[in-house]
Amino acid sequence: MQALALTCYTTVNALGRGLAPTLAALREGRSGLRPCDLMDAALTTWIGRVEGVEDEPVIARLSEYDCRNNRLAMLGLAADGFAAAVAKARERYGAHRVAVIIGTSTSGILSTELAYRQRDAAGKLPPDFHYRTTHENYSVTDFVCHYLGLQGLAFTISTACSSSAKVFASASRLIACGLCDAAVVGGVDSLCFTTLYGFSSLEIVSTSPCRPADAGRNGISIGEAAGFALLEKTDGRAGDICLLGYGESSDAYHMSTPHPEGAGARLAMARALERGGLSAADIDYINLHGTATRANDAAENLAVAALFGNRVACSSTKGWTGHTLGAAGITEAVIAALAIREGLLPMSLNTVTVDPEFTMKVLLANRNQPVRRVLSNSFGFGGSNASLILGAAR
Amino acid sequence: MNVYLKGIAACSAGFENWETLRNHLAMSAPLQADFEPKPQGALLPAVERRRASATVRLAVDVAQAALQRSGLSAQDVALVFASSNGDTNTINNICLALATPERFVSPTNFHNSVHNAAAGYWSIGAASMQPSTCLCAWDYSVAAGLMEAAAQCTIEGLPVLLAVFDTPVPEPLHQAMPANHAFGMALVLAKEPQGSFAQLSLALENTDAANTTRMDSSENLEKLRLDSPAARSLPLLAALATGKPAEITLDCASGLKLKVGVVCAGYPF
After folding, report:
1. B139 domain residue, yes or no
2. What are the tens digits of pLDDT across the range B243-256?
3. Half-sphere exposure of B37 (CA within 13 A, CB side)
4. Is A113 in Cβ contact with B110 (below 8 Å)?
5. CATH of the domain at A336
6. How many domains does chain A have?
7. Residue B267: what pLDDT?
């Protein structure tokens, strides 16, 4: 595939708003997780909440889109000069030649959850509830289009926790087909009762900060995040960080449990290598899906070990941000880009004793070294797998 | 961008399958009065079929019917599922539960709530590890699904099974999204013309001026077209049914239209 440069990228997550606070927290080993304090949620768990989302409504001209998810999206668009970079791309290519593909799992469902609490005696939802522009999965993508003034091909990808990794694959294909010249890709998922209580009922939520790959790991910590990248064709400028490969697969095994040998995960990683014309030896670091459930980490270890043995440094960064679900793909792609830019391999935060059954090499301390290429894994419910390879321009 | 069709299926109020709709559109044969889809999810193992919602079963049924017609096997195709509304019955169940003091979300409702539930069930039932992409774009979902599917089969060199579906929305969400009928359609798209029955030429047009194609031939089908985002595919199905060269216009994004040129190779199919 033709490499595409991430000419601008950003993340807003529990570590802060933008690349600088995210990088500072990664360097300092400081987690963004806190005991659950989302509204009146009564659960003993830790969450990666973005501070201040509650207090900042979306801009007035888009007020019908106002909800936690679109607020989070707006914080992301305002960070790291992202909106300004897109404005330049819009001038360069034309508003209709820049596609917008955003991943989300639950979109603004929190608004619907709260509206159901306010049903009247006849069971009707309150009049100020805007389902289409808040909860419906396309609302976040439409919000991003309007906020950035873009009129290109636009859609939401919603494949649970692989959503905002798969946006890179779709954008790459649209650009390769000439259907657009550039693409805004990203992911936005916000805290809500559906995921907090839903994952709790599956008994895969940890009561303490999540511990990916640890022998004593006992479940996920749920987070929220918004992240975006502007993808453009590159002439190979030094310093460009590029999408070099992607791989997608399905587990065909179970709706909410990964294939025990990680067969789907392995296929996604192998396809990403193949598409990038790369071999396992070309990868310097793997950002694991690493949710810290017993099943995910065990299956991912087998898949990684089958392709990479114990040669490549691996970590999950969910101990920092929590599992941001539909935004996990973009959050970790941005962390991968930071790893390359800064020469920093982040450790598996909160992991004390690596599961003795594991073969893959889990980083228990940050490491500073040149990083050329990173593979990032995102696996979701329904057995939806995506792996991305990011790297310096060749 | 040109792609070729190898399979087709459709099911909604008034027609159980593609043949019924085609014969109605091409030869004015009657539709099935009072018929509403009762999707079975026949592809799924019994245990999964019991867990699967009506939305999932509709998607799986139309996908299977289109695949059968193509003669391809499930392992030979990638999947694109487009649904604007998703599974609002499951969302309704969860939001009702979360409004009670117990806030108990059933595990089955929770795993059915993901927008890619149908694709997950399909991959299990069909034992296919091929990629699946699940997307939505309001009333643009048909156009978005076509573009994603066409780009996939062009770039990846693998035929793509595209299913577009929406189901009736229950109260109280119905107030906000008043869809009354299940609508499902599926196509198998390929990069090469061999064994295909029609060619689609897809082109984006940067305009608000072009008129969206309606179902001018039938007041009832025009009503159905407007009932759900998936039903916006009816003009495309109509063009394929008549077998004559046609160009239709689908809404694609604000300020963007998708022109679809249809040329049928063999008829009837």
Report:
1. yes
2. 999 999 999 988 89
3. 31
4. no
5. 3.40.47.10
6. 1
7. 58
pLDDT band at A236 (very low <50, low <70, confident <90, very high): confident
Phi, psi dihedrals of residue A19, rounded to the nearest 5°: -65, -40
- Is the confidence metric ipTM above 0.90 for this complex? yes
Write down the residue that tokens 């559109």 correspond to.
B25
Q: Which residue segment(s) compose the domain that A87 sits in?
A: 4-392
Q: How far apart (Å, rounded) are the C-alpha atoms in residues B41 and B58?
A: 7
Tokens found for residue A275: 């598409």
CB contact under 8 A, B204 and A166: no
| Residue (of A23, A28, A1) closest to A10 by Cα position | A23
- Determine, yes or no, domain membership for B210: no
What count of Cα atoms within 13 Å lies in the side-chain half-sphere of residue A17?
Answer: 15
Does residue B216 sit within a domain?
no
Percent of chain A as helix, strand, coil, to the nearest 5: 40, 25, 40
**Average pLDDT in chain A:** 97
Q: What angle do CA A66, A144, B248 make, to 5 degrees?
A: 115
Strands (E), chain B: 2-12, 78-82, 132-136, 160-166, 183-190, 198-205, 246-253, 256-264
Residue range B72-105, pLDDT digits in tens: 999 999 999 999 989 999 999 999 999 999 999 9
At B82, list the tokens: 């487009």
Cα–Cα distances (Å) from B156 to A336, B53, B98, B153, in that order, read 25, 31, 42, 5
B69–chain A nearest CA distance, Å: 23
In a domain, B215, yes or no: no
**Contact: A157, B135; criterion CB under 8 Å:** yes
Distance CA A306, CA A280 (A): 10
Choose the mutation target among A2, A36, A133, A159 for the interface with B, i.e. most B CBs under 10 Å.
A159
CA distance A145 to B211: 22
Residue type, A74: M
Q: Which residue of B has its CA nearest to A251?
A: B129
pLDDT at B254: 84
CATH label of the domain that carries residue B56: 3.40.47.10
Contact A384 B119 (CB under 8 A): yes
pTM for the full model?
0.98
Do A33 and A324 touch, CB atoms closer than 8 A? no
3 state DSSP class of B181:
coil
The residue from A36, A161, A180, A314 that is catalytic is A161
List pLDDT tens digits, range A148-183: 999 999 999 999 999 999 999 999 999 999 999 999
Pick from B174, B179, B173, B259: nearest CA to B226: B179
